[in-house]
Design brief:
2 copies of one chain form a homodimer.
Chain A lengths: L1 E9 L16 H13 L6 E2 L8 E11 L5 H11 L4 E9 L10 E11 L12 E3 L5 H11 L1 E4 L14 E12 L2 E8 L6 H14 L7 H7 L14 E8 L5
Parallel strand pairs in A: 3-10, 5-6
Antiparallel strand pairs in A: 1-3, 1-4, 2-3, 5-9, 5-10, 7-8, 8-9
Chain lengths: 249, 249
């Protein structure tokens, strides 16, 4: 038996998120079905990040165990022949049998894209949030600086979660304007439920002047979800990459 | 009566191109229907560029005549409230009654996007062509230089056309690599049927080594469609902008 790690890219538009649910089409569900048909084994993938409905990914990670003698690195090609075109395996490789995509230390990078213009861009409508108003990038950058570091992010966590430990580390938040797009890139060692979308929603409020950058430390300290900004829409979010640290020996 | 000019952006994925046809959903058809419902007049728009099925636009142009007393520049807002979200008016303004979007001198800019990677990018699948092989940018740039200027582009024109005059001027072709994307931007005073897609298809052949850059002058001279490369797929093409020259007094 061997364990195979997949780097999975998908357009989340037509999926009810990653995680398998009865009567809903999910990325995990499609992967399981495709692997079962292809390998004739009862495969169940374990995903690193259970992205929400409508969230996109370039680098989510999944593992599965198989008796197949096909080399792991060839599986990406075989799977891409069988998957719908809104899911594409970017890489497949063998990993140690004790490699677990959720329990291994890692850095995750998320990107949140916002079109800031007079009118929405129809080409980007499924992959960006749209904000009519001009945003103050300088204020957004100053606010973001307060979030970088190790903090209790309870104020930036959806109340619909059972997680008890809400301290996380953000290594960087990069803010840039590219043509008609504001791009917020967040890198950290783990994220609470809806954390990136709440950070994006809060930074957008800062950009519009509704929250001052200097209010961010107080919002963190409050440990109260109602003090932060709204949860920005799912479609603007993309899981860019998950980098495991010294995990694959 | 006044004439109103619209700058129209659309995702061409779900349309059978620009031009109205019976029993097919077209961008022109949706615009006519929306304008008729909104202005209660028998409006028929005239489009600048009759883009093919699946081709996208950020800056196609259409005009229509109306008795409405609503200021032309407000119409973009009103129309965007009523249009499907894959069509968005970027700008509306009054133009002289003799302004015709097809007969006025202009410069058009098209962009052709190609993802060059080991696997397709599912997020970009509807707006890019995918090429598995690595492309030689230097060769593509050298080939493109031969196309810039005033030439008879008959070899780069679909045979399904009745146009007799096949001389056109290309002002520039800009080739750049942005992340996983090769972007070919072409600017000229007019384009023959499928011309940009045949240019893109030919330049991709050059990038793969199937055509040498030095063969381009001979392909132009042959005035024979079969000498150029294939017509690249519609979904990679976007009409970026149409700039009218001294036409709006």
């Amino acid at each position: 038996m061997k364990r195979v790690k997949l780097v999975v890219a998908y357009d989340g538009t037509n999926y009810c998120g990653w995680q398998g649910q009865p009567n809903a089409v999910t990325v995990e569900g499609v992967l399981n079905e495709t692997l079962r048909n292809f390998l004739k084994e009862d495969i169940t993938v374990i995903g690193a990040s259970r992205t929400d409905s409508g969230v996109h990914a370039m680098g989510n990670v999944a593992v599965f165990d198989t008796e197949s003698r096909m080399p792991a690195e060839k599986m990406s090609y075989a799977l891409n022949q069988r998957l719908p075109e809104d899911i594409r395996i970017q890489c497949s490789e063998e990993v140690p049998l004790d490699f677990h995509p959720r329990y291994q230390e890692c850095r995750k990078t998320y990107r949140y894209r916002v079109v800031t213009n007079e009118f929405p861009n129809p080409i980007k409508r499924l992959h960006t949030h749209f904000v009519y108003r001009e945003l103050d990038l300088d204020k957004i950058r100053r606010a973001a600086e307060y979030l970088v570091g190790t903090h209790d992010f309870k104020s930036f966590c959806s109340v619909n979660t059972q997680v008890k430990e809400t301290v996380r580390t953000i290594y960087y938040i990069d803010i840039k304007q590219v043509d008609d797009e504001l791009v917020i890139e967040v890198n950290g060692n783990g994220f609470l439920y809806n954390m990136v979308r709440i950070i994006a929603g809060t930074l957008l409020q800062v950009g519009m002047g509704a929250i001052k950058p200097e209010e961010i430390p107080g919002i963190l300290e409050a440990k109260d979800r109602t003090k932060a900004g709204p949860t920005a829409p799912a479609k603007g979010l993309m899981l860019v990459a998950i980098n495991y640290i010294a995990s694959i020996k």
